[in-house]
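WARN retry 2 of 3 for item q-0093 after timeout on previous attempt; input resubmitted unchanged.
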Amino acid sequence: MDCLIIYSRDGERRFQTLTTRFIPNMKAVEFTVLSAELPAGHLSQGANQASGSVRELIRQLGIEIIDVLPVRKSVPPDEKRA
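OK item q-0093 returned
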């Protein structure tokens, strides 16, 4: 399932995509957003500094997850619609 994550950081609206086999859980959404917002290699360091709480790190960075929406893939051109 492809999903569009809508979130804001310090009031600026941002978007990220996530592909999973099934409906994504909140941890997958949080880690996707953090990996997009933190420089490479800082995710594990940042998580340790935030007393082990990913949600606390998200709060400290001023990130608010607004919505997670399923994204429909386009129909291939050779496939007929019903």
